[in-house]
Amino acid sequence: MSSHKTNLNRSVMALAVLTALTALSARADDDEAAALKKPENTIELGVLGVSQSSAKFGEYSGLNKSGAYGIGNLDVRGGSAYDENETGGTQRWSIRGSNLGLSSRDAQATISDQGSWNLGLQYDELRHNLTDSYQTPYSGAMGGNAFTLPGFGLVTNANNPTLTGGISAAQLAAFRTMDIGTTRKNTTLSGGVVIDSHLNYTFDYNHLDQSGAKLMGFGIAGVNGATGEAVSILPMPTNYRTDNYNVAMNWRQDDAYATLSIVGSVFRDGFDSVQFQSWAGASGMQLMPTAPNNAFNQVNLSGGYKLAPQTKLAANFSYGGGSQNVPFVSTNGLLLNNNIPSSLNGSIINTHADAKLTHQASRELLMSVAYKYDQRNNQTTSNLYNFTAISNSASHAVNYPNTPLSTRKEQLEVAGDYRLTQDQYLRMSVSHENYERWCNSYASGGGTAYTATTNCVVAKSSADDKLDATYRIKTNEDTHVRVGMGYSDRKTISDPYALQDFLGQNGAVPGPVPATGNTTPKGQNAGDYYGFYPVFSASRQQQYVKASVNWQANELLELSVSGRYSDDKYPDSTYGVQNGKSWSLNLDATYNYADNGSLNAFVTQQSRQRDMTNLQSSTVGNKAATATALNVPAVASWTNKLTDEDLTLGLGFKQGGLMAGKFELAGDMSYSLGNAGYNTQLSYAGATLGVPTGSNILTCRSAQILSCGQLPDIRSTTTRFKLTGTYQVDKSSKVVLMYLQQRLTSSDYYYNGYQGPANATTQGNNPNTLLPTYQTSGSYSVNAFGASFIHSF
């Protein structure tokens, strides 16, 4: 009797628990159904404080200045499709906004009638903060097109105040800090209308407004007494307006579909040039042209058809043209012959076509054949321009043609996906790619080396054969493995007799260096030594392997590891890049130690190495040493190794259910290290004479020369710690608190050349013909605190 009573009590308890769970499940289902019918709207308002100003920290986020920022996010949706769904409502509207208190803000509004029409308006803004350490003595606004030096005077030696004509204490005091950055404001209007189940029309209009500036070197021309080739680094304005449009007709019926669209783009620059004042030799005003206005229009046609139950064809075609016909800006009197066109009259025709045929040969085998064609046909006329370089030296007077380069690329790929077993898959593809370069027009004329048969490009064509294979296996329910490999063989056909507009006379054919009494035409073999090929167009053999494993160890722990290794060789390059290697390794782990708690960690390592060589001397005989210069043997060469290492470690956690289930805490921390090394070795032992004889002998490793050896590593380390707490006040409200600490330590000798004299008695590191800017690489240590309130309704 007692036993029976106990069993009965247990049954009643089990039934009660089951009933409660069923009720909870039903309530959850009702909540999910309600969410679909009436989506949750949210508004977030708050404040964020930043401890230190840093352009690098706030490069894209807008948090580049110390102080307070507003936090504003919005997501509100409604319409009869939610409120009256059961009675046939079809209209929806939405208003969304993110980062509304920052310069990286985004806002959009949409309204639609399902199956009939839609309309949307979007605005986004992004500021790119480039540097806050730039200094200049020039007067003029960042983003403007006029820079003057009122009362600054002239400078002969920009790096040494103690020399005659050296930069003075008063001139150093004239330097001021100017923040440099660009701002992009993007406005988009889009919409569509549905005619019937087969046909609809869409449109998209975008207006891009860009302002601000980017730093650029302004070379001073040696005219009207100014010292040619002296340099000022100034803000080149980005006063740009771009209008883009896209109108499309989309059709679908049964087993066929097609889209016809017209796209266009119109670019306008608010300035045609920048005026800037010379500080060397004479203080006259000079001009630097800006980007010219241009336009582009294109027609696109795409479609597909199901030829058979197992066979499909898809294809795309586009034809477009770009034009640029802005009058030339006459710059500083360097043209020696004004008998030239008044504008470029540039015209480029782009043609694209691609098609892909897929066939399901069996349940196990899917085959495909794809073809792609791209042509950039530059129809711009080539003309000879007679001018001098900015040095205005008679020896640098040239007749150069503009080079309207055209390119064409064709690619054919055959691929197959084969299911070996239920858990094993193999994909293989073979492709062939042809790439051609040429000029439809290349000006020639008397008194120049540019004859009617001159080629405008050295690397005329290349053919690249590729093989790729990937194998996937599911070893069990918890483990997935993927292994891949690839091989590429690119063969380039070059014309070393081609002439390009360079002053160099190193490209003697067959070389390696020009004979005594050099008669090599300027720019032959692009001015490079015979046997040198640029890495992007040189013949290359490339192979790679890659693999990944994902393992669900148990319900709590998931691990993944992946890696890649590649090897490049350049067998036809006597000079230039000889080989390159790279590898990467990624480890990732996630541990769910509780229903509302988890840990995750990752490690990423990347490594890259490049080896190259080249000639140093362009003369047949030896160059004797002097008191300040090394001896250089005939046909001397050098080698260079570039290494690049990156390591990133990360750890994160999330814990919910705290404070009676109302508080959730999340955090993440990471450490990144980037290190680049640059090492150069000469093929000979060079040394200066030493004055007096036997003393003060310098080598290529000496600081005064430093043409060989290991340069200081370019190194940066970033540490980041972020902690976020979320407290659920009630069903519809929560408070979020955030703390962020981020530190960057950067060391880059590139910036040494920007450092001028610290005062009137010290020498700077900048060249004496470069006005210093005192820019730094952007190290920082920033703390940020945020608090916001989120309301849902």
Any overview of this molecule?
6% of the residues lie in helices and 54% in strands. The longest helix is centred in the N-terminal third of the chain and has 36 residues, at 2-37. Residues 1-28 have low confidence and may be disordered. The protein is built from four helices and 35 strands. The two termini are 56 Å apart. The chain is mostly beta strands and 793 residues long.
What number is the mean pLDDT? 91
Give the helix/strand class.
Answer: mainly beta
Helicity range of the residues?
under 10%
Major sheet characteristics: 26 strands, antiparallel, barrel
| Overall shape | globular
Instruction: List the uncertain runs.
Output: 1-28
Give the N-terminus to C-terminus distance in angstroms.
Answer: 56 Å
Our count of helices gives: 4
Task: Supply database-style keywords.
35 strands; 4 helices; mainly beta; three-stranded mixed sheet; disordered N terminus; 26-stranded antiparallel β-barrel; 793 residues
Explain briefly what this protein structure is:
This protein has helices at residues 2-37, 80-83, 169-173, 658-661, and strands spanning 42-50, 67-78, 91-98, 106-113, 117-131, 135-136, 146-147, 176-177, 180-194, 199-219, 231-237, 240-253, 256-269, 273-277, 285-289, 294-308, 311-324, 346-360, 365-378, 384-388, 397-401, 405-421, 424-439, 459-476, 479-494, 540-552, 557-569, 576-594, 597-615, 637-657, 663-682, 709-710, 714-730, 733-747, 780-792. With 793 residues, it is mostly beta strands. The strands form 4 sheets. It has a 26-stranded antiparallel barrel.
